[in-house]
């Protein structure tokens, strides 16, 4: 023992000398049990400390001049690729009619043959196959009274069937099957249409749009704008009355990159649905037998950022430049992701108008007219959701927790032990007495 | 020290040092809680008083802890609404100071649908004075709800009533006169009232001339931006074969008893409920701009999550059914008529679509809305009327009131009790020790009394000194 210092008098932890102590079996059991409980609780505390929580925040979206990517994958089992057109329009006045870039059309065999993939071709009508390469050098195809398109291969001429179609579109003339049009007969346009009549089509890919209110739609026939009207050449679609319908199956529809699975699976109670369901239209299907049917989806897009742990410590290079590759837009080098979630309301109507009596709403009268097709009209919410990964506890918090566990458990165990001991003595006394 | 234990007349079993391999004895050696033999401990009245004080503190703290647990805590969560929504129910109960046959009720929305709401709602002729007394005060204002009044041209009532609610929000929440805007902010209030009766009240029996019309009922609209309006016959919609309505009979003064979206919970208070707007002009256009926010009140997030996973299951089941049926009827071309008759497969896509058997009392799905009013006198060429323009917000608000688990409460209680006891014991000892160090023996006596625990420790202490020598 060290020499008795004057600190001895200050000892607040007075101890009972060993002689006056009693050890009991019950005390031993309680000790072991409390040790076990302590380890168990500390383990829980550790797990809690290591756990990463996703903490959602809601802010006003302060981004400016952003772009947004639409990734879609939709099957139309009863409309051939030749007839389908994808157009994008927004309130800024930007129109992308007959979108080609980044989107491909996959030909599907007819429904009776199981809608299998026939061929995948980039959505590019100006492909080499349709180019009239073998034409004589001084050949100048007639545009049949329509003005030649500005981007024609040979100025003032319509060399291909496609250019004739485009020329017709600028005049807002219906084109039909290209009968009596030399270029089309040469290319076998009508045969191609006939061959594909029973086929389906899948449109897959992505496109980049301005982040403003807009809409994109998939409708039959070539589209053209005329005096602020957006029109589609429906002649071919309607010619095969009853064959084509806009039954469709949306495999995917998302705005921006996919959120990582870890974000949505691990976060427990607050997000019971998987990623799959965060894009509510994924894997939905609509079936109709009416070729004059219009589906509308009213989509409200909410910006969502996903910031993984430690994102602020790294230099942040967000590939939001316009030249980013399609699909890479919004993905930071540090794993942070700028994407969008959406809520959606679906609506369908027959172009013949009529009421909704079939669904029990006689009072609901649908508008008449319009274009058959699938329309997505999207609206941008001013709010932005930030999903931030955080540690639920700091290290000191963890230490405090450990101390609380040890202290609390030991105190309670001491009380229990004391009770057992006193109880045993009472019982003993009773037996003796 | 160990060597001396036999002299002190102590049984070997009192210490854990025996070499026996008896498991009981082995266990005994682990006893980390040394108990002092009763003969070595003393009790003092001062210590007893201290114990009682501590017990009172423990009881108070435990009580408050339990109360806080019982009250639960409220969380507000925002998420983007999941699933594909479709319809939106509009519940309406209004009195307009015009005859029923002169009124049209319609909804037009962004999907191009025109809903003849007039066919869905009930229209009861009534007398305006039955709803408004001589002073122009709305009689439904009696009872729980406080009524707000809005006048016609040149009134400023509405801004006032919103203004003082803002002031009151800062006041004590226990204030029994708290404004109704705050009534529905707490899950408990909402849950309590959401399960009251769900019928529209009956129209009081007509007394005197039918000068007004009560329009009430629920309309199923599309969940898209829309415009719900009440207009006069022959104005706004083109009609044939009806005589022209005299402009002098136009009076779009109205009382809104209820305007809500989603399932009808009459007892939930919405901003437009029990409001009165009057005008003396015949050509007056009341416009309300509503932003509808889908809201879920729940008592248990777990139940909500369960509901959502059930929904996901149901959805996938329906999806599988749908795709199998569509592939089985792949011979669309031959039998398009037969597939048209096939039963529509119910595809639940949002929580509201779930069949009633899944509904629980712990989850209330409704919609709140914010409203601004913009009313103006219009010229004879415009269409007067009451217009509700509504838009749906994409962000879903989940307000959850949750109670921690019973176990968590127990842990907390144990923490409180042990903490107080330990801290109290320390204070007691520290107090004694401080007196020991600072004061003399006389003072010590006075503090601790004779024959205290402190003294017994002193004895042991002395013994230690003896050992050292």
From TrEMBL, chain A:
Protein's membrane topology: Multi-pass membrane protein
Location of the protein in the cell: Endoplasmic reticulum membrane; Endoplasmic reticulum-Golgi intermediate compartment membrane; Golgi apparatus membrane; Membrane
This protein's UniProt keywords: Endoplasmic reticulum, ER-Golgi transport, Golgi apparatus, Membrane, Transmembrane, Transmembrane helix, Transport
Coiled-coil blocks: none
InterPro entries the UniProt entry points to: Erv, Erv_C, Erv_N
Bilayer-spanning residue ranges: 20-43, 395-416
Keyword Transmembrane helix tagged: yes
Domain Endoplasmic reticulum vesicle transporter C-terminal: 143-417
A Pfam family hit: COPIIcoated_ERV
Keyword set includes Transmembrane: yes
Main location: endoplasmic reticulum
GO CC, any one term: endoplasmic reticulum-Golgi intermediate compartment membrane
Function summary: Plays a role in transport between endoplasmic reticulum and Golgi.
Identification of the protein by name: Endoplasmic reticulum-Golgi intermediate compartment protein
Native source species: Xylona heveae (strain CBS 132557 / TC161)
Species lineage: Eukaryota, Fungi, Dikarya, Ascomycota, Pezizomycotina
Automatic annotation (TrEMBL), chain B:
Main subcellular localisation: endoplasmic reticulum
Residue spans of biased composition, Low complexity class: 156-170
InterPro entries the UniProt entry points to: Erv, Erv_C, Erv_N
Topological relation to the membrane, as annotated: Multi-pass membrane protein
Chain intervals with Basic residues compositional bias: 139-149
Chain spans, region Disordered: 139-180
Residues of the Endoplasmic reticulum vesicle transporter C-terminal domain: 211-325, 355-424
Biological process (GO), any one: retrograde vesicle-mediated transport, Golgi to endoplasmic reticulum
GO cellular component, one term: Golgi membrane
Subcellular location as annotated: Endoplasmic reticulum membrane; Endoplasmic reticulum-Golgi intermediate compartment membrane; Golgi apparatus membrane; Membrane
Chain ranges passing through the membrane: none
Entry similarity comment: Belongs to the ERGIC family.
Name this protein carries in UniProt: Endoplasmic reticulum-Golgi intermediate compartment protein
Organism, scientific name: Xylona heveae (strain CBS 132557 / TC161)
Lineage per the UniProt record: Eukaryota, Fungi, Dikarya, Ascomycota, Pezizomycotina
């Amino acid at each position: 023992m060290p020499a008795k210092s004057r600190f001895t008098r200050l000892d607040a932890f007075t101890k009972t000398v060993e002689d006056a102590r009693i050890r009991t079996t019950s005390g031993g059991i309680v000790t072991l049990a409390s040790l076990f409980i302590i380890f168990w609780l500390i383990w829980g505390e550790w797990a809690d400390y290591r756990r990463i929580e996703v903490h959602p925040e809601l802010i006003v979206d302060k981004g400016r001049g952003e772009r947004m990517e639409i990734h879609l994958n939709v099957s139309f089992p009863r409309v051939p690729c030749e007839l389908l057109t994808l157009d994008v329009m927004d309130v800024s006045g930007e129109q992308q009619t007959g979108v080609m870039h980044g989107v491909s059309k996959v030909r599907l065999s007819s429904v009776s043959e199981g809608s299998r993939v026939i061929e995948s071709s980039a959505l590019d009508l100006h492909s080499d196959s349709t180019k009239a390469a073998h034409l004589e050098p001084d050949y100048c195809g007639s545009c049949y009274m329509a003005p030649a398109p500005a981007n024609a291969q040979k100025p003032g001429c319509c060399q291909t069937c496609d250019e004739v179609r485009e020329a017709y579109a600028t005049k807002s003339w219906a084109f039909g099957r290209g009968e009596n049009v030399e270029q089309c007969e040469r290319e076998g346009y009508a045969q191609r249409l006939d061959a594909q009549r029973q086929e389906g089509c899948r449109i897959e890919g992505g496109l980049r749009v301005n982040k403003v209110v807009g809409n994109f739609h998939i409708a039959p026939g070539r589209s053209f704008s005329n005096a602020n009207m957006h029109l589609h050449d429906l002649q071919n679609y309607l010619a095969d009355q009853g064959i084509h319908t806009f039954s469709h199956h949306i495999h995917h529809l998302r705005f921006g990159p996919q959120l990582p699975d870890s974000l949505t699976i691990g976060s427990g109670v607050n997000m019971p649905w998987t990623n799959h369901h965060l894009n509510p239209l994924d894997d939905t299907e609509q079936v109709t037998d009416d070729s004059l049917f219009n589906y509308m989806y009213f989509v409200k897009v909410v910006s969502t950022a996903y910031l993984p742990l430690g994102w602020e410590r790294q230099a942040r290079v967000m590939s939001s430049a316009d030249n980013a590759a399609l699909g890479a837009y919004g993905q930071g080098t540090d794993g942070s992701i700028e994407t969008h979630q959406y809520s959606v309301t679906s609506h369908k109507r027959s172009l013949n108008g009529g009421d909704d009596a079939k669904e029990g709403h006689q009072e609901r009268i649908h508008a008449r007219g319009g274009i058959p097709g699938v329309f997505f009209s999207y609206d941008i919410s001013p709010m932005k959701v930030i999903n931030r990964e955080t540690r639920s506890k700091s290290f000191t918090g963890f230490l405090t927790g450990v101390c609380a566990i040890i202290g609390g458990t030991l105190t309670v165990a001491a009380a229990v032990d004391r009770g057992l001991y006193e109880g045993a003595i009472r019982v003993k006394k009773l037996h003796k007495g | 020290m160990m060597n001396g234990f036999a002299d002190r007349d102590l049984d070997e079993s009192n210490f854990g040092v025996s070499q026996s391999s008896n498991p009981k004895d082995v266990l005994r050696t682990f006893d980390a809680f040394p108990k002092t033999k009763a003969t070595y401990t003393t009790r003092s009245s001062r210590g007893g008083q201290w114990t009682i004080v501590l017990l009172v503190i423990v009881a108070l703290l435990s009580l408050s802890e339990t109360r806080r647990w019982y009250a639960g805590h409220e969380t507000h969560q925002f998420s983007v609404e999941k699933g594909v929504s479709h319809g939106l129910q509009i519940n309406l109960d209004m009195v307009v100071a015009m005859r029923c046959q002169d009124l049209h009720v319609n909804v037009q929305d962004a999907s191009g649908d025109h809903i003849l709401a007039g066919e869905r709602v009930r229209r009861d002729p009534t007398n305006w004075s039955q709803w408004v007394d001589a002073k122009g005060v709305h009689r439904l204002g009696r009872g729980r709800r406080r009524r707000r009044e809005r006048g016609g041209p040149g009134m400023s009532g509405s801004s006032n009533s919103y203004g003082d609610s803002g002031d009151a929000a800062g006041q004590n929440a226990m204030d029994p006169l708290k404004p109704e805007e705050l009534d529905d902010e707490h899950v408990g209030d909402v849950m309590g009232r959401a399960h009251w009766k769900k019928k529209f009240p009956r129209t009081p029996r007509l007394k005197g001339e039918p000068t007004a019309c009560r329009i009430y009922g629920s309309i199923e609209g599309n969940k898209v931006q829309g415009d719900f309006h009440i207009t006069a016959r022959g104005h706004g919609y083109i009609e044939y074969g009806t005589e022209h309505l005299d402009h002098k009979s136009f009076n779009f003064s109205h009382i809104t008893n209820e305007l809500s979206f989603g399932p009808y919970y009459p007892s939930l208070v919405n901003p437009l409920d029990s409001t009165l707007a009057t005008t003396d002009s015949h050509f007056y256009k009341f416009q309300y701009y509503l932003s509808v926010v889908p809201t879920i009140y729940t008592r248990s997030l777990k139940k909500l999550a369960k509901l959502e996973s059930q929904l996901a299951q149901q959805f996938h089941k329906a999806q599988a059914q749908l795709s199998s049926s569509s592939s089985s009827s792949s011979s669309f071309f031959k039998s398009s008529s037969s597939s048209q008759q096939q039963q529509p497969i119910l595809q639940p896509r949002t929580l509201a679509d779930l069949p009633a058997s899944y509904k629980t009392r712990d989850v209330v799905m409704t919609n709140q809305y914010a409203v601004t009013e913009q009313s103006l006198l219009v010229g004879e060429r415009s269409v007067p009327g009451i217009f509700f323009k509504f838009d749906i917000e994409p962000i879903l608000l989940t307000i959850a009131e949750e109670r921690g688990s019973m176990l968590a409460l127990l842990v907390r209680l144990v923490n409180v009790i042990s903490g107080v006891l330990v801290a109290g014991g320390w204070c007691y000892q520290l107090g004694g020790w401080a007196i020991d160090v600072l004061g003399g023996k006389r003072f010590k006596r006075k503090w601790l009394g004779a024959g205290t625990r402190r003294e017994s420790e002193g004895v042991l202490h002395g013994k230690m000194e003896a050992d050292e020598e």
